[in-house]
Structures are given as structure tokens and as C-alpha cells.
Amino acid sequence: MTRVFPPDAGLPGTAFLCTHCNRAIPGTAPGTVHRNHCPHCLWSLHVDLATGDRRSACRGPMEPIAIGIQPNGEWSLVHRCRRCGMIRLNRIAGDDNEVLLVSMALRPLARPPFPLDRIGASALPEVQP
Ligand SMILES: [Zn+2]
Ligand SMILES: [Zn+2]
Q: Around ion ligand 1, which residues have CB less than 5 A away?
């Protein structure tokens, strides 16, 4: 799906149409200066070279792929650009979809890279004969 963006798309404070779920999103967001993703589906758009500068020519859709934790304990969304592959951390906003945020945070636990019953076995001290 290809969309044409108005020249001011992604400018700070500018309302936009989400390229993923097609909802109209107000330009301001509680808890953050720059709204950089859709609060409903959490997808973003690759518009920044540096945070907030809106100077990237890529304009690819950015998929929310994980939750990160900042040193101060604040949650971040990890976005990966579907067009160029760039990965970026973005602050969550006060009106982000909480069910989606929590389901993303739990995703690694739902698909562990090893059998869960091995955790208990490896935590036991070795028994000396
Ligand atoms: Zn959306
Ligand atoms: Zn990109």
C-alpha cells in the first residue's frame, strides 16, 4: 500500500493520518513533546534523522517490535522501519494503547528460546555424592 504524504507530514504538532490503521491522530500527545507514533496501533513513520528533526527522506512505515526500558524506568517503544530497517527508540505517550503495550512487553515470555521446565532444573544446586 503506497500513500502520498502532505509536505508537512510528521512536523511537530501536526495532526496526521496513521499509515497503518488509517485513524486520524491529533498532533499533540500527553506526556511527550513530539508525537511520533499512533496511540491506537503504535506504528510510526520514519521521518527523523535525529529525534524530532523530521529530516529523513525515507518515510517508511515503522513497526513497533518491542518494549525497551530507559535507565529512569520509563518505557520506550522499539520501532523498526519496514523500508530501510533502521531501529529507533521512542518514548511512549500517555494515551498509547495500554493493552498493546503490555502484550508487546510479554511477547518474549510467551515465546522463550528454551523449554520453560529447564529454568527450574538449572536453578537447583548440584548434589554432591
Ligand atoms: Zn495506527
Ligand atoms: Zn526508513
A: 18, 20-21, 38, 40-41
